[in-house]
Amino acid sequence: MTNNPIRRLKLYLSMLRYGNAHNRDFANEHYHFFTTMQRNLQEYGVTDLRGRRVLDVGCGKMFWLTLLLHSYGAAVTGIDTEFVESTPSLGKYTSLLFSNGPERALRTLVWDLMYAPPYYKELARVSDFPLRFENVDARRASVTELEFPDDTFDVVVSHEVFEHLPDIPAAVRALRRVMKPKAITYIYVHNFASISGGHHIAWKYPDTEPSTLVPPWDHLRENRYPDIPSWINGLRERDYRQAFETEFDIVDWFPTSKEGQALLTPEIRAQLAAYSEQELLTKGFVIVARPKKPQNNVAAYVSAEAAN
Hints:
Elements: H1 5-43, E1 53-57, H2 64-72, E2 75-80, H3 90-100, H4 102-126, E3 138-140, E4 153-159, H5 168-178, E5 179-190, H6 237-247, E6 248-255, H7 266-271, H8 277-281, E7 284-291, H9 298-307
């Protein structure tokens, strides 16, 4: 993210413009992710999320996935490195000011005043169940420093968060510790190599609203427009696979939607020869995995599976 005040102001103006234009679209996209996740998890043996102990990694100020899971009936905890509270209050913004700084406090205030009401109204409209804001469990915590006991969670979920984590191996090790032996992940990672993977706001909707200013895949080429709302680690899909395969047995690993195919010209393709075409055109991927069996105590693991 840029430190230039003028460029940062332009970035925030762009974010406001996209928020005004697509706030309700975000709600629809989020609910679609939730229902798709719910349907896919059934294929992996999680027939019902109600009553399940779920960890949402990187719930964010919108905490939408935590809210949906909580409202549906899951025993969910959302964590984020920034202070999260489900209702506006003076204490909330004071805590944000001291824990995350004045800029984050101001951004959250603008969200709460301008965008949260219509967003949650739309999310409630498309949901098949009432939204319950009471007793939402959202906590400020780092995924690498989880204070939960071993074998706490049945399911770990995350949406477009892992690309922002600085230490993926440490995060994966921490998740394995707090997951039950038969627990499962459903983690969606925004693919850095995709046309929108640089997180530039101008490429939020590359196929329907392509940028006339920022070149396609600028973050992989000259990177002349590094003005993005948050830091990203720049890891490729193979890096995530290496980290997860160390601690987890992969149940499934699949790409999500394609984007930018019409914009991948022969010239750009030649410049990005180090990437496969599938890597460049895939927006993201989902990691479905279970903790590896302990190598030094297989019998105990089998007993834990039977008890679960």
